[in-house]
C-alpha cells in the first residue's frame, strides 16, 4: 500500500472539492489553492463536507500561492476549467521540482503536453499524468459543501514521460482507488473527452432555454435528432484519432463505462439516463462552459488536429462556427494552447513523437 501523501489541489469548484474530500477520506493530506483568490477562505475555519456517494466531513488546508502549494506537495492535481490551464500551469512551473507528479483533471487541448514541455524548458523534469474526463462527477453547493454524484468505474490515464506511467498509475489508484487503465498517450487521452461533442449540440439546440433560464434536464432534451448530430461529431472525433493511429471509445461506450447504461443507441441511452437520474439540469447561463470551454478547447482543438492530419470534419466545423455566431465569440482565438503547442506547423509523426516521449 502506498504511503500517506501530501496532495496539492488547484481549484475550488465542484470537481476540486470533490477530489479534496475523496482523497482526504483515503487518509492523504490535502491542501487547496484558489487561483482566482478567495474561493477557499471558508475552508480555513470550516470542514469540507460531502454528500451523495461520499458522506464525509474532512479538514483540508488552505494555501495562498502556487509556490506554497507546490513546495510541500508530493502530488499536484489541477482541477480547474481548461480555459484556466495555461494560466495555472505558467504560475506553477517556477515552483515545481524534478520528479514531482502533476495530474491534470481533466485535460483538454493537450494541456498536459504544454505543461510537460514548458517545465523541461525551465530545466525541470516532472511527470504529468492526465485524465480525459474527471474521476468524479460533482456539484458544489457552497464553499464548504459538495455533492459527489458519481465515481466513474473505469477511467483512462496517460503520462508524460512514458517511463513514469506505472508510477503515475499507482499514485492515481492510491488517491482514488482502482479502475484506472493506461491510455496509449496524452493525445489519446485528449481525444477521449466526449464533452465537446455532446455539449456543443446540446447547448446550441436548446439555446432559447438557456437564454430564458429555464429548468431543462439535459438527457431529456438529447432528442433523437440532437443525438444524431452528436453522433456525427463523435464520428469525426474518432476519425481524427484514427489518423494518428489511435483507437478511442465511442460516446456510447463512454456512457456505458461511466454510468452502466445498457442501451446501444445514443438517443436511447439519453432516455435511459433521464429515467435513472432525472438530470443533471442543463445550463441556464449564456456563459456556459458547454460553449465557452468545450468549443475552444474541444471542437477547435479537434479542428486543429484535423488540419494536421488532413481529415475533413464538416460537422465539427459547422458546430464551432454556429457556437461563435450565437455567442459573438471568436472561439478559435480564445484557445491559448494551439499556437504555444505549435500545432499549425506540426505533422502527424512529429506530434506523435512528442506525446510518446519516453523521458
TrEMBL record:
SUPFAM superfamilies: 6-phosphogluconate dehydrogenase C-terminal domain-like (SSF48179), NAD(P)-binding Rossmann-fold domains (SSF51735)
Source organism, top-level taxon: Bacteria
InterPro entries in alphabetical order: 6-PGluconate_DH-like_C_sf (IPR008927), 6PGD_dom2 (IPR013328), NAD(P)-bd_dom_sf (IPR036291), Opine/Lysopine_DH (IPR051729), Opine_DH (IPR003421), P5C_Rdtase_cat_N (IPR028939)
Domain Opine dehydrogenase as annotated: residue spans: 184-325
Domain called Pyrroline-5-carboxylate reductase catalytic N-terminal: residue spans: 6-103
Stored PANTHER family: BLR6086 PROTEIN (PTHR38015), OPINE DEHYDROGENASE DOMAIN-CONTAINING PROTEIN (PTHR38015:SF1)
Protein name stated in the entry: NAD/NADP octopine/nopaline dehydrogenase family protein
Source organism of this protein record: Comamonas avium
Amino acid at each position: 500500500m502506498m504511503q500517506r501523501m501530501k496532495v496539492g489541489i488547484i481549484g475550488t469548484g465542484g470537481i476540486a472539492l470533490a477530489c479534496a474530500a475523496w482523497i482526504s477520506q483515503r487518509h492523504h493530506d490535502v491542501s487547496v489553492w484558489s487561483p482566482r483568490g478567495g474561493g477557499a477562505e471558508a475552508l480555513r475555519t470550516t470542514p469540507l463536507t460531502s454528500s451523495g456517494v461520499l458522506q464525509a466531513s474532512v479538514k483540508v488546508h488552505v494555501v495562498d500561492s502556487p509556490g506554497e502549494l507546490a513546495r510541500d506537495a508530493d502530488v499536484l492535481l489541477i482541477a480547474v476549467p481548461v480555459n484556466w490551464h495555461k494560466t495555472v500551469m505558467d504560475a506553477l512551473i517556477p515552483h515545481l521540482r524534478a520528479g514531482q507528479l502533476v495530474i491534470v483533471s481533466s485535460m483538454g487541448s493537450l494541456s498536459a503536453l504544454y505543461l510537460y514541455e514548458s517545465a523541461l524548458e525551465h530545466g525541470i523534469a516532472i511527470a504529468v499524468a492526465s485524465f480525459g474526463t474527471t474521476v468524479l462527477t460533482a456539484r458544489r453547493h457552497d464553499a464548504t459543501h459538495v455533492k459527489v454524484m458519481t465515481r466513474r468505474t473505469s477511467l483512462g490515464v496517460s503520462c508524460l514521460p512514458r517511463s513514469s506511467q506505472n508510477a503515475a498509475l499507482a499514485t492515481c489508484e492510491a488517491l482514488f482507488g482502482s479502475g484506472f487503465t493506461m491510455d496509449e498517450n496524452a493525445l489519446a487521452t485528449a481525444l477521449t473527452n466526449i464533452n465537446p461533442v455532446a455539449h456543443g449540440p446540446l447547448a446550441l439546440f436548446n439555446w432559447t432555454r438557456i437564454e430564458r433560464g429555464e429548468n431543462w434536464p439535459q438527457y431529456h432534451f438529447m432528442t433523437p435528432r440532437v443525438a444524431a448530430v452528436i453522433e456525427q461529431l463523435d464520428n469525426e472525433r474518432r476519425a481524427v484519432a484514427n489518423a494518428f493511429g489511435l483507437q478511442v471509445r465511442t460516446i456510447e461506450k463512454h456512457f456505458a463505462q461511466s454510468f452502466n447504461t445498457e442501451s446501444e443507441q445514443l438517443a436511447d441511452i439519453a432516455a435511459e439516463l433521464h429515467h435513472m437520474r432525472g438530470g443533471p439540469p442543463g445550463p441556464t447561463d449564456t456563459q456556459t462552459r458547454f460553449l465557452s470551454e468545450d468549443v475552444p478547447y474541444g471542437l477547435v482543438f479537434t479542428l486543429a488536429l484535423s488540419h494536421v492530419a488532413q481529415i475533413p470534419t464538416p460537422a465539427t466545423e459547422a458546430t464551432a462556427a454556429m457556437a461563435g455566431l450565437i455567442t459573438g465569440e471568436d472561439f478559435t482565438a480564445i484557445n491559448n494552447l494551439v499556437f504555444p503547442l505549435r500545432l499549425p506547423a506540426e505533422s502527424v509523426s512529429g506530434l506523435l513523437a512528442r506525446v510518446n516521449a519516453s523521458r
